[in-house]
Amino acid sequence: MQQNKEIMIRVRNVKKKYKLGQIGGGTLRGDLQSWWARKRGKEDPNTLIGTDQRLIGTTFMALNGLSFDVYKGEAVGIIGSNGAGKSTLLKLLTHVTAPTEGDIDLYGRVASMLEVGTGFHPEMTGRENVYLNGAILGMTRSEIDAKMNEIIAFSEVGDFIDTPVKRYSSGMYVKLAFSVAAHLDSEIMIMDEVLAVGDMKFQKKCLTKMRQAAKRDGKTVLYVSHNMATIRDLCDRCIVLDQGRIVFDGDVDEGIARYLATKTQDSDCVDYSHYKRDNWYKRDNLRLQEVRMLSSRQGVLERREPVVLRYTIRAQQPAEAVGIRLEIRDEVGNPLAAACVYDLELSEGITAFTVRYDLSVLAPGKHGSYFTVFTLGEGGAHTVEDWVPGMTFKIVDTLLEHETEWNTVAWGPIQLPNAVLTEKTEKYHD
To answer: Per the database record, which ranges form the ABC transporter domain (predicted)?
Structure first.
């Protein structure tokens, strides 16, 4: 069926190899520092803090022999667990980095959005960055001017369009960056899951725009996400990656089922100390190190009991007005509910916070979670500092008394408190 369609992306036997524990410097000073440290038997100053010295120099195959074609007008979802190679693949497709082996051919101009702020110069205003991105795509100033009002309206940044983008919040970055990528002339759109920092209304608007780009405008869309609901809603094809290899390429529902079947089992603790956050704006002052669920047993929670989580956060420097948000998702990634704790203060170093939640409105069944660390500004505006996928957990209700077993499929994943009878009126016949 695809043989008569125009190929827009061709990938053949692509491999990407990295050396563990090393930061590429490429400077004489850095090379001399590393050589002198090794000479004295000291830790290399150009390696990441906490790196196991035994791993330095060993290789890691981030991608291992990928081959596929993407056709004109297709919307392809790329899914997989953390470390599967999704972001590495997109960086190769957008020429951020080069493959170690293999060939990649793109037949058209590419508009991409891989990281919050990528392609934006922080000292330039939003308007100036629109011109910059348009020029990179080969558009003339008059062509960009014709799109400018539409870009500003879609992005919702308003008067801030003439403010340097270094003063933008994460949400404003995302809104303008997506608007630029979606409206400037291109044949291929490549989007990583940065829409997570936008509000729900804007996320829906973005998904509608991407769907129109593929179905109405004939653009080719590649979309990476951990949210299976958006993959199902947007894409007509799904590629599943696992340890740098393609393990499935085909129907969306079948691909999602394949991915969910191989996800990590329930756990009471998630370690983020080595979690790679390569899709984030370069804020690194606050980082989650660990989240531990103290109230569960192997990922199982009793519905009517409090849920207690302990967050361990590393701060590079003192911070105040910090908040933590627990986001609850269903099995395919649809947001269900959220709860925040505010006004936290952190000293430099590692701080642990223990927080109690009431999740009794969640119906029995399996749920997922995300954790967000943010700082509050004036007027309730918040800046996302860290955002990571959490553990999955199962809620059970062993205390059912005179109640119907909850049907999540028919009635939804939220179970409100039982209704209370306030009056009974009986009528008697003579």
So the answer is: 48-268
Instruction: Return the H-helix or E-strand segment holding 200.
Output: helix 200-215
Inter-axis angle of helices 200-215 and 170-183, to 10 degrees? 10
Domain at 2-261, CATH from 3.90.550.10, 3.40.50.300, 3.30.457.10, 3.40.50.2300: 3.40.50.300
| Neighbouring residues of 412: CB distance < 8 A, sequence distance ≥ 6 | 363
- What CA–CA distance (Å, rounded) separates 78 from 89? 10
Q: Which CATH number fits domain 269-411: 1.25.40.20, 1.10.10.10, 2.70.50.60, 3.40.50.150?
A: 2.70.50.60
Residue 281 to residue 168: CA distance in whole angstroms? 11
Overall pTM > 0.90: no
Distances (CA, A) of 14 to 27, 104, 225, 245, 410: 28, 8, 21, 10, 45
> Cβ contacts of residue 339 below 8 Å, gap of 6+?
325, 326, 357
54 Cα distance to chain centroid: 31
Per the listing, tokens 């558009």 go with 139
Distance in angstroms (rounded) separating the CA atoms of residues 65 and 355: 45
Number of DSSP helices (H) and strands (E) in the chain, helices first: 9, 19
Q: Please measure the distance between the N-terminal and C-terminal CA atoms of the chain and give it in whole angstroms.
A: 77
State pLDDT tens for residues 308-354.
999 999 999 999 999 999 999 887 778 889 999 999 999 999 999 99
Residue 216 CB: number of other CB atoms within 10 A? 9
* Cβ(234)–Cβ(210) below 8 Å: yes
- SS3 of residue 426 by DSSP: coil
Q: Where are the domains of the chain?
A: 2-261, 269-411
